[in-house]
Design brief:
The structure holds two protein chains of two kinds. Helix content of chain A is about 55%, strand content about 0%. Chain A is mainly α. Chain B folds into two domains: about 100 residues, no CATH class; about 140 residues, no CATH class. Helix content of chain B is about 40%, strand content about 25%. In chain B, strand 7 and strand 8 form a beta hairpin. Classes of the chains: A mainly alpha, B alpha+beta. Chain A: The gas vesicle shell is 2 nm thick and consists of a single layer of this protein. It forms helical ribs nearly perpendicular to the long axis of the vesicle.
């Protein structure tokens, strides 16, 4: 089951929750002029604008395909959250892609962490890892 | 030796857990600096501190522990003072302000709510709302998927409908939850959520708030909501950017 655990609530303390509140720790909270802040280099990737749905030709074609596959008859009658429905579509693209975009945001965050953690590594090694971490992230979510 | 600052608490609190450790490797012991009825939760700042995962977690954990026994004003991650004296000087200089913030936020915690669309469910939803989209989809399907131009046209319309839905859903999530919160603050933008909102909630009223979240989940099955909390009131430490749901930030949550 690759679906993100949307149902869980509470539990802000654990490390899995850290990804979700990272921007609060880094962007909110008290700032005092007389103090300096540590450099956030390495974590600037956070600022990249990741839109859920971006208007572009690729997106249009993708959504047209998704509509094509959509079971229009089943739509109104079936509750949208039904698991077997989700299971069918997950591999077929539309939903998977959308998840990709979303966990993409989380990936850049975890990449930022890795980058910060392993900052001595040469730059060119970071790119392959960005791709690989999709699987890593999925695995994390399954646990 | 420079000083890492986690947060500010009421100086009369003597109940911080023993042996707390914070940022750095090895983790630096957490200590308290008293001044003007306030106390700063600090540790030595390690050399070359960076926003690494374990340091972010350490910052979070210290604030969680400090916040368990009463109100804490959380510092943004990575605040470093040149020395302890600078910290106490700041406390002395702005004591009245910080005491006011501690009073305003007493007994309150932050819940952060992020919403995304379940893409398949939202497609069903916009199809159901829009007969033109349905007929266009069916026409394309009869034509074996449709031409490139037809696909583009359908896709563009669907994307527009989904984006409109995103904006409406963001508003509805906020509206559905703000009545059970004392204050609301929009989360930092540009992180890929259709809604990212923090709510200031009475610690004792958290059940009511979480029930409201369940209500939104039920009424918006095409949304996925991620709730994180209780958190220290990161988004509400300064009265400025947060918008009060009632009168002023920290007002009684009985509000409208």
């Amino acid at each position: 089951m690759t679906v993100v655990p949307a149902q869980q609530s509470g539990g802000g303390g654990g490390s899995s929750g850290l990804y979700d509140v990272l921007e609060l720790v880094l962007d909110r909270g008290l700032v005092i002029d007389a103090f300096v802040r540590v450099s956030l280099v390495g974590i600037e990737i956070l600022k990249i604008d990741v839109r859920v749905v971006v208007a572009s030709v690729d997106t249009y074609l993708r959504f047209a395909e998704a509509c094509n596959r959509l079971d229009l008859e089943a739509g109104p009658r079936k509750s949208p959250g039904v698991p077997d429905l989700v299971g069918e579509i997950t591999e077929s693209g539309a939903r998977g892609k959308s998840k990709g975009a979303l966990s993409g945001a989380a990936e850049t965050v975890s990449n930022a962490f890795k980058q910060a953690r392993e900052e001595r590594e040469p730059e060119q090694q970071q790119r392959p890892r960005a791709r690989k971490s999709t699987a890593a992230r999925r695995k994390e979510e399954q646990e | 030796m420079s000083t890492y600052v986690y947060g500010i608490i009421d100086g009369s609190r003597s109940s911080l857990p023993e042996d707390m450790v914070g940022v750095g490797d090895p983790q630096r012991p957490v200590r308290i600096l008293q001044e003007s009825g306030l106390a700063a939760v600090v540790s030595d700042a390690p050399e070359g501190l960076r926003p690494k995962r374990k340091d972010l977690l350490a910052h979070q954990n210290v604030l969680a522990e400090a916040g368990a026994g009463g109100c804490v004003l959380p510092m943004r991650f990575g605040s470093v003072a040149p020395d302890d004296e600078t910290v106490t000087a700041v406390l002395a200089e702005r004591a009245e302000h910080y005491r006011e913030r501690l009073r305003a936020l007493d007994g309150k915690v932050e819940y952060n709510v992020k919403a995304t669309h379940d893409e398949e469910a939202v497609l069903h939803r916009v199809m159901a709302e829009n007969p033109e989209l349905r007929s266009l989809t069916e026409a394309n399907r009869r034509a074996g998927g449709g031409s490139y131009e037809e696909k583009l046209r359908l896709g563009e319309m669907v994307v527009a409908a989904v984006k409109a839905r995103e904006a409406e859903d963001a508003t509805e999530v906020r509206q559905g939850l703000e009545s059970s919160a004392a204050a609301v603050s929009a989360g930092p933008e540009s992180t890929g959520w259709i809604a990212n909102v923090s709510f200031l909630v009475d610690r004792d009223g958290a059940e009511t708030f979480l029930a409201a979240v369940e209500q939104v989940r039920k009424s918006h099955p095409h949304l996925e909501l991620r709730v994180n909390g209780p958190l220290p009131p990161y988004s509400f430490v300064e009265p400025g950017p947060a918008e009060p749901a009632g009168s002023t930030a920290g007002a009684e949550s009985s509000g409208e």
